[in-house]
Amino acid sequence: xxxxxxxxxxxxxxxxxxxxxxxxxxxxxxxxxxxxxxxxxxxxxxxxxxxxxxxxxxxxxxxxxxxxxxxxxxxxxxxxxxxxxxxxxxxxxxxx
Length: 96
Prior knowledge:
By secondary structure, the protein is an all-alpha fold.
């Protein structure tokens, strides 16, 4: 199944933002460990900004492409949601 909408920035940027959020979490854990800290650090703030930005971009993508190309937009939205879920589940599983 070919998804030409994946070439649109509003489709692939949320996926890249989820990947970046996952990398931030894994890099933080590899350097500082998975111990819970009293104060949120820069990594937590970067993660939060990436996730919020991803949600906003995915919302724009949905508003822009669902009415005109739903058969192509729904799989992309599913991938975006799955990528966000993976990033957030990593934080939840590590107890951060």
